[in-house]
Amino acid sequence: MTTTPTPATPPPLPPAPAALAERVLARLARVPAPPAGPLVLAVDGRSGTGKTDLAAVLRRRTGAPVVHMDDLYPGWDGLAAAVDLLGGLLERLRRGAVVEQPVWDWTREAYTRTVELPTSGLLVLEGVGAGCAGPVDLLVELTAAPAVRRERALARDGQTYLPHWERWAAQEAALFARRPLHPDLRWATGPGD
To answer: Which InterPro entries match (predicted)?
Structure first.
């Protein structure tokens, strides 16, 4: 008698950004407001884990402004500098100050404008290093296997990102070795993680 092999059970699908957003918002509802400045929610993780997608859903659901770390990195070698810059911005927000966030223009390779950050309500930080910079009220870390992350990042950014992938990944590793994340919530967004 021959037996038909049982197909391997596929790995569970990761929660869609909308489902993740619901979980994040449920947790956020239990976080007390800080004494000064906005409630700060950081979505962190390595490149290609789905941070931008989750932040977009959170923005649609809450109306909260989003600080994209891509707007802070001063070029392809600027991960650590952007984290330090964000740390200074967060310190000033926590003191109740009005804060102007600089925005990096990748074409001109310079900060070319600023955006005023909210002094109350909710502020979402999104990107590699968003949770390493300083005081946040809720830290969400998204993870995925390296091959999944690379495939997603290159599908998103194509040839623009390809020549920079390895050096960016090295900066991520160095950052998280120096400043490990201690997330309140962590989700795997792809198979193998």
So the answer is: P-loop_NTPase
